[in-house]
Amino acid sequence: MAKKIAFAASDAPTAQTARAALIARYGTTPEEDADVIVALGGDGFMLHTLHRTQGLRAPVYGMNRGTVGFLMNEYSETDLIDRLDAAQEEVINPLRMKAQGSDGQVHDALAINEVSLLRAGPQAAKLKITIDGNLRLAELVCDGALVATPAGSTAYNYSAHGPILPIGSDVLALTAVAAFRPRRWRGALLPKTAHVRFDVIEPEKRPVMADADSIWVENVLWVEIHSEPSISHRILFDPGHGLEERLLREQFV
């Protein structure tokens, strides 16, 4: 039985051209009726597609037509059906962020890669960190901090010198961004079930913004983060090029 494929593409000309060529070759179907959604672009567009289609039954298979493609497969027009038939599935759970702004409004967002807090002014941020209701760090002076999933551990987390986490490890990475005090504190590995809370110290003098996969909240007073097991994102990869293999490969380059 032929697969019903829906094609989605970023606004980049290369992605739009690829989408037109693939539709001409394979046809297309609405996403809600599709067996698989093929996303054409970079990692940013892949994250956008996963968020947008999280309520649909179809997994997402990405092909790289962008600048970064850690979550994407190589692009090819000629053998798509065979690749989809052979693709291996990875299932990941996003993080849920709740953040209260200085106006009192509480914002709710999901993040597949990470939730990050970043200083929004000239002075370093001061953060208090509580894990599962227990105070773990009374004051972290830094440019920011983040909580990353295994899927997101090679993104901003890795750039901030955080650890790469294997898929299926059931842990989260808590990583400091340019920590000033404690100077040598590099973060912590947390169980996937952990509830993390950041309280901003001196928020008027040292403003902080929070970001969940490019959903921004300015002037936050506190941020709570935990894994959301009720939501599962299904991603397809070519054999030998799944997240597990890519995470391993990143550690030997």
From TrEMBL:
Keyword Transferase: yes
Record EC number: 2.7.1.23
The keyword Transferase is assigned to this record: yes
Pfam families assigned to the protein according to its UniProt record, in alphabetical order: NAD_kinase, NAD_kinase_C
InterPro entries noted in UniProt: ATP-NAD_kinase_N (IPR017438), ATP-NAD_kinase_PpnK-typ_C (IPR017437), NAD/diacylglycerol_kinase_sf (IPR016064), NADK (IPR002504)
Coiled coil: none
Cellular component terms per the entry's GO annotation: cytoplasm
Needed cofactors: a divalent metal cation
Active-site residues, Swiss-Prot/TrEMBL: D43
Domain of life: Bacteria
Catalyzed reactions per annotation: NAD(+) + ATP = ADP + NADP(+) + H(+)
Enzyme's top EC category: transferase
Record keywords, A-Z: ATP-binding, Cytoplasm, Kinase, NAD, NADP, Nucleotide-binding, Transferase
GO biological process: NAD+ metabolic process; NADP+ biosynthetic process
Binding sites annotated in the UniProt record for NAD(+): D43, G44, H48, N113, E114, D143, A151, T154, A155, Y156, N157, Y158, S159, A178
GO molecular function, one term: NAD+ kinase activity
Subcellular location: Cytoplasm
Similarity annotation: Belongs to the NAD kinase family.
NCBIfam families with a match to the protein in the record: PRK04761.1 (NF003406)
Function: Involved in the regulation of the intracellular balance of NAD and NADP, and is a key enzyme in the biosynthesis of NADP. Catalyzes specifically the phosphorylation on 2'-hydroxyl of the adenosine moiety of NAD to yield NADP.
Protein name stated in the entry: NAD kinase
Organism: Roseovarius litoreus
